# Entry
Amino acid sequence: MPDAFADLVGQDEAVETLRRAASAAAAVLRAADGPDTTEPTGSPDGSDEGDGAAPGIDPGAGMTHAWIFTGPPGSGRSVAARAFAAALQCVHGTGCGTCPGCHTTLAGTHADVRLVVPEGLSIGVNDMRALVLRAASTPSGGRWQVVIISDADRLTEAAGNALLKAVEEPPPRTVFLLCAPSTHPDDISVTIRSRCRVVPLRQPSAEAVAEVLVRRDGIAPDVARWAAAATQGHVGRARRLAGDPQARSRRDAVLAVPRRLTGVGAAFDAASALIEAAEAEAAASVAELDAAERAALETALGAGGTGRGAAGAARGSAGQLKELERRQKSRATRAQRDALDRALVDLAAFYRDALAVAWAAPVAPVHTDTTDLADAGARKWQAEGALRRLEAVLACRSAIEANVKPRIAVESMMLALWKG
Ligand SMILES: [Zn+2]
# Structure
C-alpha cells in the first residue's frame, strides 16, 4: 500500500511522532476552516486543550512550526522531512501517498513546499532571506507553507540569523523542517535549536535497508544484503552500489588500497589515485548540471546580441556569468569532498573489519566481500596495528573537515597506513 513514509526505513518511532503531529496539524486546519467553531486556530505547539478541540488530537503530540531531523548520513533526514511535508499537505489523512497533496510533495512539485539543498559549502544569507520572505506568504493550497532545509548545518552564520528571525516569529501557516547531523552547537545554533522540536533518526539496520532495496527497487536479495552491509545502512549509497557499476568499481579501487601499500612511493601513488578518483567522480556528477545552467543563463542573457545596448548588457552578463562560475566552483569543491569522504568511510570500515577479527568480536563485517583480506590484515597487524590504521583514516577525515588540503591529509594517511 502506498504511503508517504514508505521510504523512511527502520524509523518506526519517528514515523509515529510525525503522523500524530500531522493529524494535529489537520485538526488545526479544520478548526480554522470550520464554519461554526468558536475554537481558536490553536497555538503552534498544539497546547490548546479546550474541550472544543477536534477529536483525536493528542495535545502532547501536537503540531509545531519548526522541526529538526537529526541522524547520521543516510539515515533519511531529508526523506523524513519530505514525508512529513507530504503528510501535512495530504488531503485524505496523514500521508496517504496517493492524493494530489502527497503526490506533488513527494515529486517535488507542490507549490507550497520548498526544498533548499545547499550546493556550495554553505547556504548563503541572500538565499535564506528570499526563502524566508516567500515562506511568509499564504499557502496557495490552503494548508501549510513548508520549507525544508536539508543540511541546515551548512547555513552560514548570517543565514542562520535570517532563519532564526523567521523561526522566532513564525507566520501562522508556515512550517520549517531542518535537517542536520545532530543538535550539537557546531551543527545548529543553540537559539534555533531551542525553537524547534527534534526528531532523532537512527542508523537503519542493514536488514531494513536490504528489505527496501528489494521491495522498492527490485534489487536481487543477495545483492541488496551485500550493498546494505557495505554502505553501513546508508539507503541512497546502498541503492547506487547495487545498481551502478561505476560505483562498484570505485569501491573496489578503494578497498584495494591496503594491499597496494608496499612502500613510500606506493603510498604517494595511492594518495594520488584516491584524490583523482574523487575529482573525477565529482566532475562527472556536476558536469551536466553546470552545462545546463550555463546554457540557460546564456539564453536568458541573449548571448551574441549585437543590437542597441548590447555592450551594456554584455558587461552585466559578464558579472552574472562570473557569479554562476563562482557558485559552480563551490559546488564542485563540495562534491569532491563528499566523494573523498565516501571513499574514506569505505576504507575505515575495512580496518574496522580487521580490528573486529583481531578481537574476535561477534559483529558482522561491513565489507562481506573482503573478509579474506581483513583476516590476513588482522593476523599481520594484530588488534593494535589495525586500530592505529583505523585511527589514521579517521584522522584524515577530521583533518579534511578542518580544511587541511585534501592531498596533504590523504598522503599523510597513506604513509601512516603503510608504516602502521
Ligand atoms: Zn495524501
